[in-house]
Specification:
Number of domains: 1
Radius of gyration: 25 Å
Low-confidence stretches: none
Mean pLDDT: 85
Structural class: alpha+beta
Strand order of the largest sheet: 1-2-3-4
CATH architecture: 2-Layer Sandwich
Order of helices and strands: HHEEEEHEEEEH
Strand content: 35-45%
Length: about 190
């Protein structure tokens, strides 16, 4: 009987000690698609036709950025969306694949033009960064510090916590050229159908 009393007293004592609570899972639901192209990727119960065409690649500091045209059709509903996919590779590994809808291509080209023309007249402060982000999370940045005197450019995904690809002004121009080529290809396909 004495052993039972000791066991019960020990159990009661343990119940009074602070317990570590497990965190609540607040991310139980997948993220909502940010682009129409991503929305097509989540369709179920219908045949989805995904077509891609490689456009080109820009090599950067520790990786590369690859651009492809993308065209997705819901065969059952006859709906169709197009745009580009931007694949970010770091040290040969794919870090993220970002989708940019067709209607974002002109604003993206305008943003690249603006960022590439930036100079120190944008601010009197000793440093700055100028940022453009697409709905799908492709982020372009121009940044500089007067101490170094240099203005640099970077591309990254807002969804992944990986270092950005740092570009020169020439590499930013190459990226613009690839986006422009992709838009021209998509324009020609849209005219055909």
């Amino acid at each position: 009987m004495r052993t039972l009393t000791v066991i019960l007293a020990g159990a009661a004592g343990l119940a009074l000690l602070p317990q570590r609570a497990l965190p609540q899972d607040t991310n139980a639901y997948p993220l909502q698609p940010q682009t129409r192209l991503e929305g097509f990727e989540t369709n179920t119960g219908t045949v989805i036709i995904r077509a891609t065409a490689p456009i080109g690649t820009v090599a950067a500091n520790a990786g590369e950025l690859s651009i492809k045209c993308k065209d997705i059709t819901d065969a059952g509903a006859g709906r169709r969306e197009s745009g580009i996919s931007v694949e970010i590779l770091l040290s040969g590994r794919r870090e993220d694949l970002l989708l940019v809808d067709y209607d974002e291509l002109d604003p993206l080209l305008n943003a690249i033009d603006y960022l590439s023309r930036l100079d120190w007249s944008v601010t009197t402060f000793p440093g700055f960064d100028a940022i453009y982000t697409t709905r799908g999370g492709l982020r372009l940045v121009a940044f500089g510090g007067r101490r170094s005197g240099a203005i640099e450019f970077a591309v990254r995904s807002v969804r992944a916590n990986w270092p950005p690809l740092v570009f020169s002004r020439d590499q930013l121009g190459q990226l613009r050229s690839l986006v422009e080529q992709a838009k021209a290809k998509l324009d020609s396909i849209r005219k055909e159908k």
